[in-house]
Design brief:
It is a single chain. By secondary structure, the chain is mainly alpha-helical. The protein has one domain. About 80% of the residues lie in helices and about 0% in strands. The chain is built from five helices and no strands. The chain is elongated, with a radius of gyration of 15 Å. It starts with a helix and ends with a helix.
Amino acid sequence: MTGTQLALLVVTLLTAAVNVAIAAADLSGARFVLANSAEVGVPRSWLPWLAALKLAGAAGLLLGLFAALRPLGVAAACGLVLLYLGALVFHLRARVLSNLAFPGFYCATAVASLALAVSC
């Protein structure tokens, strides 16, 4: 296993794990999720759909670890990048900068997964 392949494995597992965790928080109606989504103007009815996108992205990333399914991993990473860019836009539009680091972190992990999947 090369260094790039090891980095792909580690970053992909991290990205999948954080997406599963935040999707679980979305689905369970965690207090911080409800407060944040209300603050940035995301309707509560969107949360199950957003959670489904995050879970689908995590599953696609994991499947993309198999060389034959790498394009699926690339597509999943692209989808997650777009999802979190949208989250960043919602935060900026609402001028909620206090917790911008959270969607920024999720976006950064998705970008790193995308870059590594494309390079392998």
